[in-house]
Amino acid sequence: MRAVGVGLFAVLACLALSGCSSLGGREEAAAAAALRFEENLRRAQALPGCDGLAPGTREELEETAGSPCPAALAALELPSASGVRRVDVYGHQARVVLDADTLFLSAFRDGWKVVAAGCSARPGLPYQCDLKGG
């Protein structure tokens, strides 16, 4: 009976430790997706930038602008950012605070996608974002 208890403890400890290590990996993946998105914008490569958007965000951008995603994304003139200051992951959602922008991302089967960008914190209120999905 004692062996079962020790074995169970070992399994639970491994699960707890792997959960912590996977969080770091998820934070890194969210940060990498945010930086890829920003790099595409800096290089004026709107088409790859559009590929980094969540489907609902891309649809709303195109509907609001009345033009295809690459033209609509370029017209937004989102802030140019490069350095990661903070990453918070909550389940399938992430907030990536960069040196000049804050992005919100969601995890999809093919990786992290930008749900909102050009976001500014407002004390006591939700973030104000220039690009967001519905």
Explain the overall architecture.
The protein has 134 residues and is α+β, with helices and mostly antiparallel strands. The protein has a single domain (2-132), classed as Nuclear Transport Factor 2, Chain: A, CATH 3.10.450. It has helices spanning 2-42, 46-51, 55-65, 69-76; strands spanning 84-90, 93-98, 102-108, 111-122, 125-132. The longest helix has 41 residues, at 2-42. The radius of gyration is 18 Å and the shape is globular.
Percentage of β-strand residues: 25-35%
Number of helices: 4
Based on CA atoms alone, the radius of gyration comes out at 18 Å
- CA-CA gap between termini: 54 Å
Q: What is the string of SSEs from the N terminus onward?
A: HHHHEEEEE
Which CATH architecture would you pick?
Roll
Write down the CATH class.
Alpha Beta
Class of secondary structure makeup = alpha+beta
The shape is globular
Mean of all residue-level pLDDT scores: 84
CATH topology: Nuclear Transport Factor 2, Chain: A
In helices, the fraction of residues equals 40-55%
Described by strand count, sense and barrel closure, the largest sheet is: 5 strands, antiparallel
Q: Which spans of ≥5 residues are poorly predicted at pLDDT below 50?
A: 1-22
Question: Numbering strands along the chain, what is their spatial order in the largest sheet?
Answer: 1-2-3-4-5
Secondary structure: number of strands: 5
Overall tally of structural domains: 1
Tags for this model:
134 residues, alpha+beta, 5-stranded antiparallel beta sheet, 4 helices, 5 strands, disordered N terminus
Nutshell version of this structure?
The chain is α+β, with helices and mostly antiparallel strands.
